[in-house]
Amino acid sequence: MKGAVRKAVIPAAGLGTRFLPATKSQPKEMLPVVDKPSIQYVVEEAVRAGLTDILIITGRGKRAIEDHFDRNFELEFYLEQKGKTDLLKEVQETSELGDIHYIRQRDPLGLGHAVSVAREHVGNEPFAVLLGDDIMVDDSALLRSMLDVHDRYGRSVLALKEVAPEEISSYGCVEPEVVDEALVRVHSIVEKPSREEAPSNLAVIGRYVFTPEIFDALDRIEPGAGGELQLTDAIGLLNESQTVYGQVFTDGRYDIGQKIDFLRANVELALERDDIGPDLLAFLVDLLHRRGLT
Fold it and tell me: Strand 36-37 to strand 32-33: parallel, antiparallel, or no bridges (unpaired)?
């Protein structure tokens, strides 16, 4: 089904157990990457790609996400009175990023279920899904390219990235047919295959553009392990009646659901900043020297 993509869905209902105890009383999506919560990077990515109608799927204990994107008049008044105009502008811009809506995923039944609860808001339109655990630092280039593919073919598009063979069991994996240098047709898709059973080393990574027929596929799949509805199963079912494409990319992704990538994102993005990058670089050079590594 063709049509311009206007809406983005951001599932953010996970418990964040990998970052306990830090996530005991705050959403994992609010953990800061330098000085912005990770979910703000995702929202900004959607907005830069022209998707300003945004639905965030939340759960219990996620109210801080709503507060973050809301106005804070007391803070704004304080900053104005103190003449901190740059900070005031940043705070105000956060609440003006887009038209942000919220709905709760009442039961933790997996990513497929989280996407399914967006049905009423999305309606009979194509839409994008951006996972909050993956932040893309690429000026929305990947998402824009996926939207272009959807505009060209009117079909669903997955973000794909080559991973090491020993890592493929952590991802959904596709069997591809090459269309051009960075675009493939998806022949089949399997969730977390073993290294020996994987049809390729192309992993599905955190960005999707779906036709609305994905909701019918989600209605038809059966729960898997733990009673969860797997989005991968619904994509495979959709692929039986509609071609699904894959956009291959290489750079810009941080899997901040993993501690090492969360730390890498903080260091690398901080190094790119004019205000703190030089001091951080000097500290890291000194640290390596003191540890005898340079």
Answer: antiparallel
